[in-house]
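We now fix the convention by which a protein and its fold are recorded. These numbers are not coordinates but entries in a learned vocabulary of local backbone shapes. A record is reproduced here so that you can trace the correspondence yourselves:
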Amino acid sequence: METEKKQTREIETPTNITIKGILGLIMENIEASEGGDSKKVISLGMGDPTAYSCFHSPALAQQAVSDTLSSYKFNGYSPTVGLPQTRKAIADYLSRDLPEKVSADDVYVTAGCTQAIETALSILAYPGANILLPRPGFPIYALCAAFRHLEVRYYDLLPEKGWEVDLNAVESLADQNTIAVVIINPGNPCGNVYSYQHLKEIAETANKLKLIVIADEVYGHLAFGTNPFVPMGVFGSIAPVLTLGSLSKRWLVPGWRLGWLVINDPNGTIKTPKFVERIKKYCDICGGPATFIQAAVPRIIQQTEEVFFKKTINMLKGTSDICCEKIKEIPCLTCTHKPQGSMAVMVKLNLSLLRDISDDIDFCFKLAKEESVIILPGLAVGLKNWLRITFAAEPSSLEEALGRVKSFCQRHSYQENGHC
């Protein structure tokens, strides 16, 4: 008797590279090669400054969370869109820098900026739609798009223009099925901060193409160069903006997973009852961050002193300067644009000066194995044969790590004197 075979449909998982995935593989490579004289591992790969003691959250934030937790008032479910007082605090915080205020109803509290990304792409996606993403950029966007069967089209950022958006490319890529263009400002992975004029030009281009702008401002206000941070919501009357952000970077609490998605659309171009209901229903699926964390947000936002932010900015400016100066000592690496904000910089890798290094991934794996330094290959953020270096680190650790990178490059140099 013939046995029926049960047919199962194999579920395909997107093969997109993720930052955590590739850094995990690099770390495994270190662990597999460790010997008795192994060096201390220094990671300049992940944008988590809390790994270093010089970056820590304000004591007030810790106390606010402790107080809300010990009050026993916030152990239950919160509304899936977020606690009312949390939404209002975020709306008030963002409205400080906007010509037209956003209301609490425009704010949706998410489990970090990553969930805000997932929410934005999910509510906008439909069969046959596409989205424009920056290259280099943050790979979670492409991964989320792949799960939603949303076609990704990449526009280039221009290193010779301070990583500005190639607006001509945006225009050539967009069509009637393009739902949005994503911008990240201050930039991850490039460390750029866009000028008011360039942001206005982006909004005008989006308006011309009838696109929504998804503005990733997770590094909002972490600017220390010539351009001040200008939120994209300033131009919400030109083109509708979905602003994504979080407490993670500015308050140095990435593990708290407290983010937001905010509609900046004073003209009501997209903020229809149907659109709002779609967001609410998606929030019902996802849930949000812990209720007691949400309850602490008003106090954290309203009472954190400006001196805390200034200290963080000064530290990042100092470590970015160290990073750039040390890179100048390594001829096979070029910092094409000094970082103006965020916590990372893109560095160009000149393979012609190195022997037995095939590409940026090979460089990073061999560097980790030989020097116990972790940096991110550019391919992970869409730019082959570049490197992303995170400078949110202790100055001494940063100097030590980049000194090891210099030694590594000297050993792998073509020249006999050992200098690449």
Notes: The chain is about 40% helix and 15% strand.
